[in-house]
Amino acid sequence: MGLSQRLLALVSLGASAVAFAPRRLNIPSGQAARLQSAALKASVEDKDKVEVTEYFNNEGFDRWNRIYSASEDVNNVQLDIRTGHDQTIAKVLKWVDEDGDAAGQTFCDAGCGVGSLAIPLAQRGAEVSASDISDAMVSEASRRAEGVLPAEAFSKMNFKTADLESLSGAYDTVTCIDVMIHYPSERMQDMVSKLGSVSNNRLIISFAPKTFFFQALKTIGSLFPGPSKATRAYLHAEEDVKAALANAGFKIKREEFTSTSFYFSRLYEAVRES
Fold it and tell me: Which segments constitute the Magnesium-protoporphyrin IX methyltransferase C-terminal domain (predicted)?
């Protein structure tokens, strides 16, 4: 029995206990339905989080550590994804360099992976808090940073294992690159709101856009068996992401799009509305 089934069973058992208890609790049917729906939603969210955490601490870490490195032990698809991801990171850094505001600024890189963005930000003089849901990813990011940064720059970095919901503090800029693909549409707005709550000035986020072509590509890919599809991949409508940013108090300043054969990503830079 899966986690969601167990939770639903507990809800059903709880309802039965209420029905036969000496003291009856009057719970409107609509409220009971909402409670069951909330329990099911929570179970699905927890299952997603567990899957993502386990994947990126084990098989996924080995695969993506190779992709996000100079390793030659990658296939053509993985090499293409590396190229696309590198292009997205380069676009973020181009914006930062154009503004000339990295040195002395505070950045939160949420979902830092192996440090592909966090380390270059630190090299530019930023104070960076880098977090990821995966212990393995955070450890690798810290190892890489220590290996390439001067001691003073490395001392300004803070690495921690945390999911997006656990973010705290206040930063000049919050970045979240190639992470939203792990969050379903119904949770995306909450995630953007959370990211916005710890950003004083700017949000930079990327996501896989939901278009007819990309949805078809994702559907076709799901028809082929293989061990690599260990976690769910979620696409997001651009209008939904824009609305989530607006609801969080941000307006889009710049945007970019990266597309290779197997990688596609919309990138937004949003600034807090005064």
Answer: 176-272
Query: Domain total for the chain?
Result: 2
Measured CA to CA in angstroms, residue 3 lies from 6, 39, 42, 49, 58 at distances of: 5, 11, 10, 12, 21
Residue where the block lists tokens 């089934």: 5
The model's pTM is: 0.77
Specify whether 232 is located in the same domain as 140: yes
Give pLDDT tens digits along the chain (274 positions). 433 333 333 233 333 332 223 334 454 556 655 555 444 444 445 666 787 778 777 677 888 899 999 999 999 999 999 999 999 999 999 999 999 989 999 999 999 999 999 999 999 999 999 999 999 999 999 999 999 999 999 999 999 999 999 999 999 999 999 999 988 988 999 999 999 999 999 999 999 998 644 455 444 444 444 444 445 788 999 999 999 999 999 999 999 999 999 899 999 999 999 7
Domain presence at residue 34:
yes
- In terms of domains, do 41 and 131 share one? no
